[in-house]
């Protein structure tokens, strides 16, 4: 899946509705995960909204995150949290389950996870 085929990841993922479904499937898994849950506030709604905006932008949709918060600077924004390799892997595992749960085709799931793997491990700071 690529823009060379005439379609962005964002479009292939179902656009705004697809990203919303992914985020809604993802965060219950994150909250329930023993390594990840403690990093997040009890009211996860604002986190979900930021993630929706970021993923929309990251995958080729409108720059919702930057329009509201400026440059993403995601590594800097994650520095206050202890991000270990195990937590990065857990995050990707939760995302993989969410993508599967939303019915995303295997080939697209793999491409999306591959695209997220670099940033997930780039945030490791412990």
TrEMBL record:
Keyword Plastid carried by entry: no
SUPFAM superfamilies (alphabetical): Globin-like (SSF46458)
Alphabetized UniProt keyword annotations: Heme, Iron, Metal-binding, Transport
Gene3D superfamilies: Globins (1.10.490.10)
Entries under InterPro entries matching the protein: GlbO/GLB3-like (IPR044203), Globin-like_sf (IPR009050), Globin/Proto (IPR012292), Hemoglobin_trunc (IPR001486)
Pfam family, one: Bac_globin
Coiled coil: none
GO terms of molecular function: heme binding; metal ion binding; oxygen binding; oxygen carrier activity
Top-level taxon of origin: Bacteria
Recorded family membership: Belongs to the truncated hemoglobin family. Group II subfamily.
Name recorded for this polypeptide: Globin family protein
């Amino acid at each position: 899946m690529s823009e060379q085929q005439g379609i962005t990841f964002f479009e292939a993922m179902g656009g705004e509705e697809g990203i919303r479904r992914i985020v809604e499937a993802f965060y219950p898994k994150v909250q329930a995960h023993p390594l990840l849950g403690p990093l997040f506030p009890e009211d996860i709604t604002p986190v979900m909204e930021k993630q929706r905006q970021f993923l929309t932008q990251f995958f080729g949709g409108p720059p919702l995150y930057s329009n509201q918060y400026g440059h993403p600077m995601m590594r800097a924004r994650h520095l206050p949290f202890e991000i270990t390799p195990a937590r990065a892997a857990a995050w990707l595992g939760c995302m993989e389950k969410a993508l599967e749960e939303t019915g995303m085709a295997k080939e697209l799931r793999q491409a999306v996870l591959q695209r997220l793997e670099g940033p997930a491990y780039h945030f490791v700071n412990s």
